[in-house]
Amino acid sequence: MLSCDKCGERAVYLRRYSGQRFCEEHFLSYFEAKVRRTLSGGKMIERGDVVAVGLSGGKDSLTTLYLLSKMRERLALGLHAIAVDEGIKAYRKETLAAAEAFCSARKIPLSTVSVEKRYGFALDEAVKVGKNKACTYCGVLRRKLLNEKALELGANKLAMGHNLDDEVQAIMMNYISGDVARVARYASEAMVRGLVRRIKPLGDMPEKEVALYAHLRDLEASFEECPYTGDSRRFEVRSWLNAMEEESPGIKYSILRGYQKLLPHLGTVESRDIRWCKKCGDISSNAKCKACSLVAEVKKYLLDQEIG
Prior knowledge:
This protein has helices at residues 24-41, 59-71, 92-106, 115-119, 123-129, 134-152, 164-177, 180-185, 207-216, 233-247, 251-266, 290-307; strands at 13-15, 20-22, 50-54, 78-85, 110-114, 157-159, 197-199, 275-276, 283-284. By secondary structure, the protein is an alpha/beta fold. It has a single domain, classed as 3-Layer(aba) Sandwich (Rossmann fold), CATH 3.40.50.620.
């Protein structure tokens, strides 16, 4: 039986890259202390902030909301949860139920926004008729809906449940794309008109640690995986990174730290001029933003189906 390095009690977690062993009590305290350091080090949360949390009902977003709720009174935070119903049959219903139960028990106001109500089609329909993969539609439209609702709620921060694995996957995908300007912009927190500052309290926490924390805290998260996950390039990158981590523990941290060291040098890379979408007015690198372009594409295909 493995024993905790701090107290000798039965260990529930071995951090392979450092060799440290934690019992339940010391794992929970380690996890929470590290998240607090992430928040304070990046000046993500300040007293009196109004924070909207993107809530899916999964382990990452529930853990994020739970940790922020523990700070709510001490920091006088305004706290809201926003759930997005993308329109994924036999999947989103369960995760939304988990989100609603969680918020109800903790008296956290929850707003649910729907892709179908906002744009006239569900994600399942977009995937059937559109030329892009599900994650493209979902990522772009979800991001836009969360930002719109956060602005409506008067939030000055939008907290996302992205963990270390998510961050490293995104970094590697940007490297693979070869778009240096996009690599430079990924971590940018510059305030831009119409965008609520996004923060990632779990950005330093591996997915396995988040899952264990949610389990030990009995957060009743949904562990259902999106049925479209296997269709994305991210899935391939995730599998490769997990294999690398298994062979060389700590490599995900190394990728993240290496990227952070590159950022000061990437700051000199010229990015495309900031423009504003001619249709919705949001920030865009083109005359029409990605969300408006995708919506127009799907509606055209749906109309062609009706006519045909």
